[in-house]
Amino acid sequence: PEPAAAAEAVPALGQAPPAVSPFDLAAGFESLVGAENEAWRELAGVWKIDVGGGDPCTAARRYQVQCFRTAKSTLALIRQLDRPGVLTLRDAYNRAAYVMLAGLSGDAAVVLIGGEPRSVPLLALADYWRGEFATFWRAPPDYAGAIVDRRSGPAANWLALQLAAARGDSRPIGAQFDDTALKGWIHTFQLTQGLPSDGVAGPVTLMQLNRAVGIDEPRLLAEN
Fold it and tell me: Is residue 107 helix, strand or coil?
């Protein structure tokens, strides 16, 4: 489906999904093999990003949006980050298949297949999903990689302001805040969010910060 069609398939992100028909992953796995481009186009549609026919991550950067990929995700982390993404599924022969994850409930995942939301039991998903997850996220201004100190320039200034907002501190951030202060603020935020506390604002920390301060990003469909 085109991006617009994919967006229509999930018309109200953050709200409870309509009743969806089940999808038999074992029987339908073959139809998903090699469908990576389709899954990314559906995700791009939710983000209202036109990725055209090229690399979705390259196209997304035009919108100040970055790609995040990991081979070691968990459903708990995806729930915490609260954002749709692309799941890579693998069968016993290690063939890769792809679906866009649109929502999670206590016992099922809602995925888009052919632009339509379908329900897959988590027990069935566990037979094919080994932690490979990818998604988009809205990056700070002039983002050039993980933020560890003020050398990141505008991205570090943005980070300091958002960390203050996340802890409810409305006082102006001094122009001369130092690296020690910034690292301490990152540590504190990570600890309060249940993230590994290394004092480095990488993609997972920044995605969680976006959620904490209400940055406009698509969310997973809520449970019924």
Answer: coil
Q: Tens digits of per-residue pLDDT, 97-147?
A: 999 999 999 999 999 998 899 999 999 999 999 999 999 999 999 999 999
Strand partners, 68: 135
Render the burial of 106-145: b for 16+ CB within 10 Å, e for the rest.
eebbbbbbebebbbbeeebbeebbeebbbbbbbbbeebee
Backbone angles phi, psi at 25, to 5 degrees: -65, -35
Q: Sign of the C-alpha dihedral, residues 49, 53, 57, 61?
A: negative
Which tokens hold the place of 83?
Answer: 């954002």
Q: State the Cα–Cα distance between residues 103 and 187, nearest whole angstrom.
A: 30
Task: Single out the residue of 178, 173, 142, 143 nearest to residue 160, CA to CA.
Answer: 173
Q: How far apart are CA 92 and CA 94, in angstroms?
A: 5
Q: pTM score, two decimals?
A: 0.86
**Interaxial angle between packed helices 179-193 and 154-166, expressed in degrees from 0 to 180 and rounded to the nearest 10:** 50
SS3 of residue 102 by DSSP: strand
Report the C-alpha dihedral over residues 197, 202, 204, 206, rounded to 10 degrees. Answer: 100
Integer Cα distance of 74 and 67 in angstroms: 18
The Cα 147–Cα 125 span in angstroms is 35
